[in-house]
Amino acid sequence: MVNAKYANELELRKARLIMLNADYGKASDNLTLLKSEVVKSIRGESSFSTEMLSDLIREAESECARLEEQCDDARRDVKDTENLLRQLSDNFDELISWAELYDSASLEKKKMVVNALINRIEVSRDYKVKIDFNFDFEQFTQGLDIAA
After folding, report:
1. Residue 86: which of 103, 94, 17, 57 has the closest Cα?
2. Which of 67, 76, 124, 139 is the most core-located residue (most Cβ within 10 A)?
3. CB-based burial, 97-122: b 16+ in 10 Å, e otherwise
4. Strand segments (E) across the chain
5. In this structure, are residues 85 and 20 in contact, taking their beta carbons and an 8 Å threshold?
6. Which residues pair with 121 in a beta bridge?
7. pLDDT confidence band for 120 (50 / 70 / 90)
8. From CA 28, how far away is CA 36, in angstroms rounded?
9. pLDDT of residue 143
C-alpha cells in the first residue's frame, strides 16, 4: 500500500515534468520565432517594430528562464521521489526478512530480532507505551489510509 502511494506520487511528478518540458518547448519555439522576426524587421519585411519585438523577446526569455527553473525543480522532485521509493522498498524488504526470521526462530533469536528492530520501549503510568524503532515507522503508516 505504501509502495503504491509513493509510486502514484512518482507518476504525478513525472506527468508534471512532462507538462513543464512541453511548455518550455513551446516557449523556446516562440522565442526562436520572435528572434527570426527581428531579422525580418531589420530587412523591413516585418510589420512589427523593433521596440515591440525587443519587449516580446525580453518577455519570452524571462518565461523560458522561469520554465527552465521549474523543469529543473521537477526533475529534482522526480529523482528524490525515485530515491525515496527505492529506499522504502529496501527498508520494507529488510523488515520482511526480519519477520520471516522471527517466525522460525528460537526464543533467544526472537529476542535478538526484536533488539535489532526496536531501540527503546518506555512504559509509563496507565500503561502508556512508547516504542522507539530503529527504522522510520511513519513512512510505513502514512500509506495505510489508502486501504480504508
Report:
1. 94
2. 67
3. ebeeeeeeeeeeeeeeeeeebeeeee
4. 118-124, 128-133
5. no
6. 131
7. confident
8. 12
9. 46
pLDDT above 80 (res 146) = no
* Terminal Cα distance for the chain, rounded: 11
Quick one: which of 27, 109, 87 has its CA closest to 62?
27
- Amino acid at residue number 14: K
In sequence order, what are the residues at sequence separation of 6 or more whose Cβ sits closer than 8 angstroms to the Cβ of residue 46? 37, 38, 40, 53
Are the C-beta atoms of 59 and 65 separated by less than 8 Å?
A: no
Tell me the Cα Rg of the chain.
Answer: 28
Annotated domain spans of the chain: 2-146
Polymer length in residues for the chain: 148
77, 13 Cβ separation under 8 angstroms: yes
Q: Give the closest residue to 130 by CA, choosing from 118, 119, 121.
A: 121
Beta bridge partners of 130: 122
